[in-house]
Specification:
By secondary structure, this protein is an alpha+beta fold. It has a 4-stranded antiparallel sheet with strand order 1-2-4-3, with helices on one face. It has 3 helices and 4 strands. The protein is elongated. The longest helix has 24 residues, at 81-104.
């Protein structure tokens, strides 16, 4: 059920995830903003990034891109910090592959 502290945990895990993403992408000018509420996370890019869906899928992540330039993450409410760390690591690989493709073009 949603009792047993799940909502409180989702809030703190969302904060943990947003902070980890901000730290990971701090050096990337293409990433404009990491925002969210609880575990609903948006990563705003300075350009359209639909290619990220396939790059993430190749790394075992299911994401979607909304409004052309926002990566949306909606992990389960019961995600652990270890799973968040793995998500951030895999997403970092995908984002950096995308950035490298964009810079090479």
């Amino acid at each position: 059920t949603l009792g047993d502290g799940v909502i409180t945990q989702a809030k703190s895990r969302g904060e943990y995830l947003r902070n980890a993403l901000r730290k990971q992408f701090a050096d990337l000018s293409m990433v404009r903003e990491v925002r969210g509420l609880g575990l609903m996370i948006g990563i705003q890019f300075d350009r359209d990034c639909p290619e990220l869906v396939a790059l993430a899928r190749d790394r075992g992540l299911l994401i979607n891109v909304t409004a052309g330039s926002v990566v949306r993450l909606v992990p389960p409410l019961i995600i652990s910090e270890a799973e968040i760390d793995e998500l951030v690591s895999r997403l970092n690989e995908a984002v950096r592959a995308f950035v490298n493709q964009q810079e090479a073009a």
